[in-house]
Amino acid sequence: MSGKESNGKTSMNGKQKTPEKQPLERSGEGTRVTPDMDFSSRALKVLAERGFLRQCSDIEALDRLLSEQSVSLYCGFDPTGPSLHVGHLIPLFAMAHMQRAGHRPIALVGGGTARIGDPSGKTEMRKMQSVETITANAERIGEQMTRFLNFSADQAVMRNNADWLADLNYIDFLRDIGRHFSVNRMLSFETYKMRLETGLSFIEFNYQLLQSYDFLVLFQREGARLQIGGDDQWGNIVAGADLIRRIEGGEAYGLTFPLVTRSDGKKMGKTEKGALYLDPEITSPYEFFQYWRNVADADVEKFLFLYTFLPAEEVRRLGALEGSAINTAKETLAFELTRIIHGDEEAGKALKSARSAFGAGGGTGGPAGGMDAIPSLEISETEIAEGIGALDLFARTSLCSSRAEARRLIDQGGARVNDRKITDQSELIDSNEVQEGEILLRAGKKRYFRILVI
Q: Does the annotation mark 154 as catalytic?
């Protein structure tokens, strides 16, 4: 961070500052976007029609800007894990729609901010990770973003905030950036209100300053005028726009998306095993496909709008299907999204395996070919001949995350071996169950796992 001063003040990027402007004080409340709003820009029309919009700092001004010129916009993704998950899909799809409407997405990998951890939506402090782990995670999620955005010819760019955050001088940062933030205002945002009840560390309290600084740097270096994100990011986003007005006298905007829940009120992307990841080594393409194939009827149209690029007319047609015909819409949703994440070949294999497992008529028939995409485990013929307890066998698969979960599955009548219901936890599964070199396990009505006998 450069810190030399002359007659005027020098900013951290070395540029001579203009006399400091007193910004307009804005409340944390933006414009809540409603379905009856009419937009002139193609980008907002598409996002509104598909259900992406929640809140905007100045929706009318942003609509005019998006109508008049190509706008650089950004969204941040902290690499706190080795893979993106379903919770990241909404901003990824939103950036893709914005790019298709002629705008320039900046995918910001938070290699710097991940070293602190965003307190938004969390009830306790994130576990600290090593710089080496964060760097490895950043490389993996960066590759996953290429499935949504076209990074050729500067149509989209990827940046890592570690490039400007990792070597900041703390004293200079406090003097040049920290002085623009009101603690009282920061505490007015819901994220901090909630965490004050359970405990908020000083390092997490700094997160909003760093995210705001990201917006300022991208405004200065990339011309970013818009930051997008989930509605839990609202406080951080508008703080960044305020910082830009204070330091550069420029106008920047914030736009947030609703936090998506299922029709039963539960959080999206959660399974019995935990989060649903985009990395096939963590969540197999078949498991990924099956999650979307099994969504509730009431969610199908909403999810087709949010999680595919199908035209609106086709989404409405599929969403209007009733009875058993709605399964066609669910299959389309699962195939389209699996194809985007894992490619045509894996999506096709998952579709074929799902149809085989359930039978051509949607029943619960056994193997009929095309089962390769179903998760599997190899067990020796010798071990199978000796017999494995049903509880132990199910606990060794991805159908159950623990022995306790396997026990509940059997006790509740949801465990099946080759379509035979298992009622005794200690029952031995042996060579008598092997059919054509494998044993098919099932949990509930729709989750399958193959035991390959070698």
A: no
Options 270, 302, 317, 396, the catalytic residue: 270
Pairwise CA distance, residues 314 & 321, whole Å? 11
| 88 carries an active-site annotation | yes
Catalytic residue status for 267: yes
Residue of 232, 242, 279, 299 marked catalytic:
232
Query: Which of 58, 63, 78, 80 is the catalytic position?
Result: 80
Residues of the chain predicted below pLDDT 50: 1-27, 121-124, 360-369
Active-site hit among 191, 211, 256, 397: 211
The beta-strand segments (E) located in 81-156 are 104-109
Is 271 noted as a catalytic residue in this protein? yes
| Residue 444 Cα distances to 194, 205, 323, 369, 394, angstroms | 37, 44, 21, 21, 12
CB atoms within 10 A of CB 441: 28
Query: Which residue in the list 55, 58, 63, 85 is annotated as catalytic?
Result: 85
Q: Does residue 85 have an active-site annotation?
A: yes
The pLDDT of residue 271 is 63
On whether the CB atoms of residues 11 and 216 are closer than 8 A, the answer is: no
In angstroms, the CA 278 to CA 136 distance is: 16
Among residues 45, 54, 122, 317, the one annotated as catalytic is: 122
Annotation marks residue 80 as catalytic: yes
Cβ(232)–Cβ(90) under 8 Å? no
* List 31, 129, 144, 271, catalytic entry: 271
Q: Is the pTM of this model over 0.70?
A: yes
Helix (H) or strand (E) holding 225, with range, is strand 224-230
Give the position of tokens 């078949």: 286
Q: Is 416 left (phi over 0), alpha (psi -120 to 50) or beta?
A: beta
pLDDT digits (tens, 9 = 90+) for 3-43: 333 333 334 444 444 434 333 333 356 789 987 899 999 99
Domains along the chain with CATH numbers: 31-257 (3.40.50.620), 270-358 (1.10.240.10), 376-453 (3.10.290.10)
Strand order of the sheet with strand 420-421?
A: 376-379, 447-453, 438-443, 415-417, 420-421
Q: Which is catalytic among the residues 17, 54, 126, 446?
A: 126
The phi, psi pair for 307, rounded to 5°, reads -115, 15
Averaged pLDDT of the chain:
85
Q: How many CB atoms lie within 10 A of CB 121?
A: 15
